[in-house]
Hints:
The chain is of the alpha/beta class. It has helices spanning 31-34, 36-46, 73-83, 113-122, 135-138, 152-159, 172-178, 194-219, 224-245; strands at residues 2-4, 7-9, 12-18, 23-26, 55-61, 95-97, 100-101, 107-108, 127-131, 145-149. The strands form four sheets. The chain has a three-stranded mixed β-sheet with strand order 3-5-4, with helices on one face. Mean pLDDT is 83; it is low at 224-248.
Amino acid sequence: MAVQGVNATLITIEVNITSGVQFFLVGLPDNAVKESRERIVSALRQNGYSFPRTQVVINMAPADIKKEGAAYDLPMAIGVLAADEKIDPEKLSQYVIMGELSLDGSLQPIKGVLPIAIKAREEGFKGFILPKHNSREAAVVNNLDVYGVENIKEVVDFLNGRRELEKTEVNTREEFYNNIDHFDFDFSDVKGQENVKRAHCSRRRAQYYNDRTARSRKINDGKTHSDHFTTTHATRSIGNHQSTFRCR
């Protein structure tokens, strides 16, 4: 997947192995992607596999979209092993695979996991295989099996049917309520700047009242109890808002 802002585009990796000794990587890769060969060769060797001693051509389609970052290491390595008949290709079309490889075959975290997971579900993939560090972020997307792995060997064994991967599951409602009062940063951590704090709180209040007015217009049934409900809801929300931003 190629991430562009908050959207992701499906990238298909094609690998062809023929007689020869050269290595070609095409499909508009950036420098980080071009350097993947050395990481892949080392990772495969450290885990008991070998890079083919023949000509290898890797195409990243569609070719007119620039591919950036090292997150394509894992899918390219898996593609090479599948083309070399070291992996059963039956499951490959069912999963989105992303991950940056270390030289020992372990996986490093990647960026843009959430839009990738959303796109994988939209495209009808069964699951998403990615570094374990990112698995909980991807698991907030429902109707998608998310598997966090720590090493390329886990992926190879899974695709060959020699092991099962543990599915990562996240209860989004429970996570929300457990962290609703937890903030990494708070205005109480800022020394001084009282005018800026008050300006920000005033802006948020104005935004809230505008949203409340829009909701009230949608109700528009002319009944007194609807207005009363809206007012009560606004009062409670303002109280929570003031607590969150520590407005005084």
